[in-house]
Amino acid sequence: MEETKDSLAFKVVAERLTLGITRTLEHMPGVVDVRFAEREPAEKRSLLSWEQKNTCILPEDLRDFYLTTDGFTLTWSVKLDNECVPLGCMMINSVTRLCPLLQPVALFSLPNAPSLADLDWEESSTESGLEHAPAAPRFDSRSRIFELDSCGGNGKVCLVYKNCTSGVVAQQSEIWFLDRSLFWHFLTATFTSYYRLMITHLGLPEWQYAFTPYGPSPQAKQWASLYQPLTLSCELSLADLAGDSYLNKLDPIKAFKGRAKAPAPKKKQPTQCSIGGANKGQGNTGGRHSGTKR
To answer: Are 121 and 114 contacting, i.e. CB atoms less than 8 angstroms apart?
Structure first.
C-alpha cells in the first residue's frame, strides 16, 4: 500500500515537473521508451555551499527548482526498423555538476598554452547587425559561467553572470547558449523561460540552434518537422518576417561566376597549302586507283 502511494506521489511530481509532456510523447507515433529519472530534492546547505564557493547567488526560480529535484533528465526514443534509436533528451545538471565553464589553469599545463580567454575579442552588437541584442558574455573574469546542459556535445547551455567584479557577489544571471564554434547566443533572461523552451522543443537534437543565425542541421530539422511541426513552422515564419537574412541562399550567377562551360573552339579554315596538299593526296590516290583498274 505504501509503495502504491509512493508511486502515485512520484507520478504527480513527474507530471508537475514535466508539464505533462510525458503523456504527450507517449501518444506520438513511433515514440517509445519515455524515461523520466526520479531525483531527490537538493539540500539547502548544498545550495548555500555552491553560492559561497562560486561567489554567486542562484536565481530564485532555479533555487526553487533544485529544492524540488536535484537536476532533471527526461529521454525518449523512436522506433525505426524494429530498432529503438535515442532521440530526445532534456537535461538540467544537478547542483554538484553545475560547474564553472572556465576552469582554473592546471599547474602542470604548458606555460604558454592558450585558454578560452585568449579567444575572446571585442565585437559590438551594432557591427554584427544586432543593435538591441544583449552584450555577450566574456571568457575572462568579467563573467562567471556555469554549465547547465552539455547538449550532447552540440554546444553548452550556460548560466551566466556578467559584469562581475573580483570579490563581489554576483546576483543577476541569464541563460546563454555557447555553440561549437565558441559563439554566444542569448536564450532567455530567466531559468523558468528556458525550462519552458526546453519542454516545448521536446529536447530534440540541436533545438538550441533555432536561436542562432544559422539554425539547426538539416537532419535536426527533419526530426523537428516530424515531432514539432507547429513550433518549426512558427520559427520559419518569423525568419521570413525578418527577411531571411540568415538563410543560406545560393545565387548561381554569383557563385558560379567564371565557371561556365567554355565555348567550343571554332574550326580553322584550311590554308592554301593544306588545300594543295589535300588535292595532291587526292591526285595520288586517284592515280593508284587508276593503276588498279588497269
So the answer is: no
Topology of domain 2-103+134-203, CATH: SMI1/KNR4-like (3.40.1580)
The Cβ-side half-sphere exposure at 11, using a 13 Å CA radius, reads 7
pTM recorded for the entire structure: 0.71
DSSP class of residue 136 equals P
For 121-146, letters b (16+ CB in 10 Å) and e give eeeeeeeeeeeeeeebbbbeebbbbb
Q: How many helices (H) and strands (E) does the chain have?
A: 9, 7
Per-residue pLDDT of 146-165, as tens digits, reads 999 999 999 999 999 999 99
Distance CA 240, CA 233 (A): 10
Of 136, 147, 141, give the one whose Cα is nearest residue 168.
141
Burial 203-230 (b: 16+ CB within 10 A, else e): bbbbbbbbebeebbeeebbebbeebbee
